[in-house]
Amino acid sequence: MTTVSMTVNGKPVSADIEDRTLLVYFLRENLRLTGTHIGCDTSQCGACVVHVDGRAVKSCSMFAAQAEGANVTTIEGLAKDGKLHPVQEAFRENHGLQCGFCTPGMIMTAVAAIERHGTMDRETIRHELEGNICRCTGYHNIVSSIEDAAKKMSAA
Amino acid sequence: MIPYPFEYKRAKSLGEAQALLAQNPDAKLLAGGQTLIPTMKMRLANPSALIDISKLSELSFIRASGDTLTIGAATTHGAVAASADVRRLIPALAHMAAHIGDPAVRAVGTMGGSLANNDPAADYPAAVLALNASIKTTKREIAADAFFTGMFSTALEDGEIVTEIRFTKPERAGYQKFANPASRYPMAGVFVAKTKDGVRVAVTGAGPGVFRVEPMEAALARNFTPDAVAKIAISPDNLNSDIHASAEYRAHLVAVMAKRAVEHAVANDGH
Predict the structure, then answer these.
(1) What is the spatial distance between Cα B206 and Cα B201, in angstroms, rounded to a whole number?
(2) The domain that contains A14 carries what CATH number?
């Protein structure tokens, strides 16, 4: 057992966990933050993407102990004061989801990509989405959502 | 999926990591963990402990000095891809790093981890071998030609830790791969480098480990153009055959990727 402490969505958290606890299970089961999904569980689908110290990572492929002392943001941490994050809003406006299972990971990946690139052409957006799989939309509206959000965020 | 139990230890220095490795012979080093953790989740690896070296600042750096580029072993693919020094000195290496796995993998996966693991379909071994880089460890310096010894095996000894990789700016270099559409691992990837000492061509993804293609090197030394390699046939005899591609198909891909790698090197100087 080990004690891990980190900041999740701005709040300090701490728990005694087994060393082998993956970050995604720590978030979902210890903290009950179930917005972060487990899709493939083999680091391919990206449904589990969260931000650790500002970098988008797959939380199914990282142990919670590796995030000791880190600043973690999950999908639950994006909206502020009841107002959706611009990327969340753009997914809503552009019909960027159908069943919604991949959406938390898509949005966390998109937020990090926009932070790195600012506005992006559609080819760059598709390259940035290589680690996120969606089985409903065919990606078209996801790309449109991110393109729209990046434009609005750069203009703001 | 839940791995077997193990003990997690975060090393505070390279010295402490070495001491922990010596005390725990069944331990493994953890850097980005993008291969190790999935392998542990599949219960194909069962280390007694993980010694986390990913936070060691002494292993995470990119230094340029003249024509020499030195990259710390714990430097992430994302950092290599974004580095102005790498893009200036060896743009083909930055291009390669920008196409390893996916963005989340690149945010944590490291160069040293990739080299020490020596996955037969990893990208970096092709760059290191073609660029004739040198791998510095806690014990010695190993030339690329001596480092990669076969599938998932290297010249590294027990307790030896890769600390940095030293590259020299080539005159021209290019890398092209045919990525598996699902995993993004190359089914064949070819890195071509032209230096004052000659031309080196290294292939990953197609065989049991990274390898050089001497007939292509000789042809490119005479005439550094895509056409010089396009017609050089590769024997499928020792190449991989699996559900994704036959050995014959991979042999064909090697020639096509070699041609594109030379185009990449010539056209945009590897950008």
Answers:
(1) 13
(2) 3.10.20.30
